[in-house]
Structures are given as C-alpha cells and as structure tokens.
C-alpha cells in the first residue's frame, strides 16, 4: 500500500490527456502535439496505427496521420492515456504474469464494451466504457510490478490449478493484504482519474456492485469476461452469464458480438504481442 501511495505523480502528458478527455473542441493538431511530447508514446501510437488490427492500407509515419487517417481522435485519446498510465509498471520480473494476455483483455474489453454499452436500454457514454476497459486491471499490473515474486506465485498456482478469477483475487489478498481492485482504487485516487473509470478500477470483478457507476462497471466486466473467453478459445463462461443477468441483456447480444469480432481475434493477438513487447 505504501509503495502504491508513493508512486510519482502523473507525468505532464497524462495530465494533459486527462484534461482533453472531456473537451469537445480538441483538434487533431492539439492532440498530436501532446502525444509528441513523449517520444516513447509517439512510437507506440504510430506502431498501433500500422498494426494489422487497424489495417490502414498505407504505412503511417507520424502521429498526425495515425490520428487523422487511421485511429481517430477519441480512440487515440483513450489509447494514449492507457499506455501512459501503464508505463510506470515494469512486470518483467513477475514470471507468472502474462503481459500479452493482459493487453488482449485490456484492448479486447475496451473494444467490446462500446457496442455492449450501446445495446443497453439507456446507452452509456462510450468514452468511459472504452477507457474503463483499458484500465480495469491496472491494479493487477501495479501489484505484479511492485511485488513480482509474490504475484508470480499466486498467478502461476492459479493457472496450474485452473482457479476461477474471483478466487484469484482472494489468493492475492491472502498473499499481499489487498486485492488487485483495492490496488486499482489507490491508483485512481492517487492520480485523480475520472469517477466512472475509478469506479471500474475499484469494483473490477464485482457483479453485485450497485453504486453510481454500476452499469459502466458491469459493461466492462461483461466485456472482460468475453475477451478472456476469446483469448482462451472458450465458448462461454459462468462469469459472462452473471454480468448478463446484472445488465438484463439476452445471451444473444453477446453471441452476436462474438461472431462479429471472431475474425479479428488473431490480429488482436498480434496487437497484444506488439503492446507487450514495446
């Protein structure tokens, strides 16, 4: 907990991106200039625009092209912020942590959460569910970076014994004294993240949560369960069904969404590998 609370303040680029999230008058040039303040972030955004997942057809060589021709303002704002906020956490010493799977779930959850949010009787703002999908497991990432040996033991044992996701959270608590969601709550407070996103990071995995942003949390939870099923090539899961019940959505909504996204799973895997290695 002390390590989390003593993390450095947000870098200038992250603070600027957070300010830009709710701006309706943000121009392509203004966003590009913020991203170009960070050479590493610039390289990753250009790399994403050139990935097979986005399949632009022509090579992208700069941020302006990446934003204007391939990715779009809203997507780049959220992706850039997700990349910057995950930047402080180096998980290479945590042998049990699967970085590729993490990014698949993050980007898959973000992508799937948008159409799920629109399928509700009262649709949600897509910006918050997308960013919530990207960041919902940031607490897990932080714990793997700060406590690599302990987290490696927990995650390796969970994978070998096929432990359920909610049980993994309890195992982490037994080892470290706090859950990944509680770590996410500390980060959200420390960095003053927007309330809907903070709620998702804090309540990640809790299908019984009914606070102010419970639908945002539930949509991201459902999207995360579907992304995990796609990554592990499973057809269905109990966790997915719990979220469907909470949201009052028919199973057909998810099955149709899965079929539409199945052709893009391999390119999403490649994109996740790119994110994990860069």
Automatic annotation (TrEMBL):
The record's annotation in SUPFAM superfamilies points to: HD-domain/PDEase-like
Q: Which InterPro entries match?
A: HDOD (IPR013976), RNase_Y/CdgJ (IPR052340)
HDOD domain residues are: 7-207
Protein name (Swiss-Prot/TrEMBL): Signal transduction protein
């Amino acid at each position: 907990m002390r390590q989390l609370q003593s993390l450095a303040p947000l870098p200038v680029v992250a603070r600027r991106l957070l300010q830009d999230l709710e701006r309706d008058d943000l121009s392509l040039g203004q966003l590009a200039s913020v991203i170009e303040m960070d050479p590493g972030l610039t390289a990753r955004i250009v790399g994403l625009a050139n990935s097979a997942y986005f399949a632009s057809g022509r090579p992208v060589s700069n941020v302006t092209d990446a934003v204007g021709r391939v990715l779009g303002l809203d997507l780049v704002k959220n992706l850039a912020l997700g990349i910057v906020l995950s930047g402080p956490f180096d998980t290479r010493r945590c042998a049990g942590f699967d970085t590729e799977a993490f990014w698949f779930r993050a980007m898959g959850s973000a992508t799937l959460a948008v159409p799920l949010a629109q399928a509700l009787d009262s649709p949600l703002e897509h910006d918050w569910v997308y960013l919530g999908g990207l960041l919902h497991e940031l607490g897990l990432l932080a714990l793997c970076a700060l406590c690599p040996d302990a987290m490696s033991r927990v995650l390796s044992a969970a994978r070998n014994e096929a432990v359920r996701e909610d049980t993994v959270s309890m195992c982490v608590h037994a080892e470290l004294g706090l859950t990944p969601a509680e770590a996410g709550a500390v980060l959200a407070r420390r960095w003053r993240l927007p309330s809907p996103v903070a709620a998702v990071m804090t309540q990640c995995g809790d299908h019984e949560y009914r606070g102010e942003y419970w639908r945002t949390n539930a949509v991201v939870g459902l999207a995360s369960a579907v992304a995990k099923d796609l990554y592990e090539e499973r057809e269905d899961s109990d966790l997915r069904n719990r979220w469907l019940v909470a949201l009052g959505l028919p199973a057909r909504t998810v099955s149709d969404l899965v079929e539409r996204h199945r052709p893009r799973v391999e390119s999403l895997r490649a994109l996740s590998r790119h994110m994990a290695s860069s």
